[in-house]
Specification:
Length: 531
């Protein structure tokens, strides 16, 4: 305890704050990256005028509340005020569109990664670049606004991601980490910067519009892990901590996306390492040892925080529909006079699923709370279906909803492994899907037919990864790579659990996927019927 108190007093700590889809979380670590305090704030995106968004008030009120709870946790545990830290960093869900004019005013409401409203732009840019540009990427949002002839485009002076925006307001620096940048615009890994040739192609594409800007001029500056990204300003310190207790001048590392912090938090930045983040959305990533033979609409190419190429399979939907069904059982329990805590509720239902048939007894579900680009849906329509002779019981019902949470992910990963011969020795998992050990990891291992590893620290997730990146900026030796730093100084002797795929589960998941793929026509009909 005395060592921790001393570390807090002397600022020998590292702070990471990440804006997830449903929770803003802060993690404070000691110099050895042991989490010593945390804070959190729940928030939800909203669908307004057909656009998934958060307001700027949501951002700042959420950040202040999250930080205040962290500071309160420090005070409660160690009887200390948090006045400074050794370094800090901010990360957030990737992609989306935040565009500002010359005075720094937001021009249109924040368009998040969840939106599937840029199909035309995505197709045109993919064809123009010869490189897959997903709908959620920032450049797709900008170009779709151009195609839509939106009035605000002529006023754009700067556009960035959520992490880039928060960093800018707290430090005054318009910069972005290369991993987060790779979800804005394609990256050239040889330069660790935006692809120059594609920037030129984009400028040529919009030359006749006479907007008065070049795309380079309105993008943030790209930085790699370990580079200095500025310091917390007096104004920024007050935004973060209105009490004035936190001092300005703290070093801040490059802002990153949740993909990059997930790689760091699971020690998955080296070739043939993979990781999966599974919560509201789900994405898997594998660091490539060779280029892909062609562009695929189901696959994204992003980078590690150091700039290495990564193949990503990103799915908009994972646990939202599953959580909705669990909430239904909570409501039933309450109505019969039984108050059930989340650990008991989720644990009971998830473990019950493992008693079901490996193929879910023929039951079929689609968890499309929002659109799903991998399977070609631009709107969400959660759907559960069964035939009269299917084995309809609670265990198969829950198993089907766990399986469908990974259905689109399975489609994308099969392209990588079966068509591109990409190898991953294992995947590290993190996120709420893995909370019940022996269930989420077992289902994921069956879906990908690959061992799934879980770390004790994986529960801290992205904000812990961002705290590590802050520490790497301060503590790395000359020429020390992020991969070596993680292996030698962070992940030393940590407990890791491995779940190997069960052959019966793998076969059952494949059977479920036959129904899943065959039933996509039913799901499309459901979408069309309600348009």
């Amino acid at each position: 305890m005395s060592n921790i108190k001393e570390a807090i007093q002397q600022g020998k700590t590292y702070l990471g704050i990440e804006f997830g889809s449903t929770r803003i979380k802060a993690v404070l670590t000691d110099e050895n990256y042991n989490p010593i305090a945390s804070g959190g704030h729940n928030w939800e995106n909203r669908l307004e005028n057909g656009v998934w968004t958060y307001t700027l008030d949501d951002v700042w009120e959420g950040l202040k509340d999250c930080y205040s709870k962290l500071a309160a946790d420090v005070a409660k545990q160690y009887d200390e005020k948090l006045t400074t830290v050794g370094a800090m960093g901010f990360s957030a869900m990737m992609h989306g569109y935040m565009a500002f004019d010359k005075s720094g005013e937001l021009l249109v409401p924040f368009r998040t990664w969840r939106n599937t409203i840029t199909g035309e732009a995505s197709d045109i840019l993919t064809e123009e670049f010869g490189y897959h540009i997903p709908q959620r990427w920032s450049i797709a949002h900008l170009y779709q606004a151009i195609l839509n002839k939106e009035e605000h485009v002529s006023k754009v002076d700067f556009f960035t991601t959520l992490a880039g925006y928060v960093h800018w307001k707290l430090t005054g620096e318009k910069v972005i980490g290369v991993g987060d940048a790779s979800g804005m615009f394609p990256i050239d890994s040889s330069t660790c910067d935006f692809n120059a040739g594609m920037l030129d192609k984009f400028d040529a594409l919009i030359a006749d519009k006479n907007f008065g800007f070049k795309i380079r001029d309105i993008l943030p500056k790209v930085l790699v892990a370990g580079e200095d990204a500025g310091t917390l300003t007096e104004e920024g310190a007050k935004l973060l901590d209105p009490t004035g207790t936190l001092k300005a001048g703290i070093s801040v590392c490059p802002p990153e996306g949740d993909a990059g912090t997930g790689m760091v938090a699971t020690n998955s930045v080296g070739v043939r390492t993979g990781n999966i983040s599974a919560g509201t959305s789900v994405f898997s990533m594998v660091v490539l040892e060779h280029d892909l033979s062609k562009a695929y609409p189901e696959l994204d190419l992003v980078t590690t925080p150091s700039g290495e190429q990564v193949a990503m399979v990103h799915c908009n939907n994972c646990t939202s529909d599953l959580n909705a069904w669990v909430s239904l059982f909570r409501e039933f329990a309450k109505d019969i006079g039984k108050e059930v805590d989340d650990d008991t509720l989720y644990g009971t239902l998830y473990r019950k699923a493992m008693e079901g048939d490996a193929d879910c007894g023929g039951l079929l579900s689609y968890n499309y709370f929002s659109g799903e680009s991998i399977t070609g849906f631009d709107e969400g329509r959660p759907l559960f279906a069964r035939r009269p002779d299917d084995k309809f019981n609670l265990s198969n019902f829950m198993r089907a909803h766990l399986y469908t949470a990974l259905g689109a992910l399975k489609i994308g990963n099969d392209i990588l492994t079966k068509q591109e011969n990409v190898k991953a020795d294992f995947f590290f998992g993190q996120g709420g899907f893995f909370k019940i050990r022996g269930v989420g990891d077992r289902v994921m291992a069956a879906a990908l037919d690959t061992p799934i590893k879980l770390m004790e620290t994986a529960g801290e997730g992205g904000p812990w990864g961002q705290a590590i990146l802050a520490g790497y900026m301060k503590q790395k030796a000359a020429g020390e790579s992020l991969e070596k730093y993680l292996s030698d100084k962070v992940f030393v002797g940590g407990k890791v659990e491995t779940c190997n795929p069960d052959s019966a589960d793998v076969k059952g998941f494949d059977e479920f996927m036959k129904n899943y793929n065959a039933g996509l026509a039913i799901e499309r009909a459901a979408v069309d019927s309600l348009k």
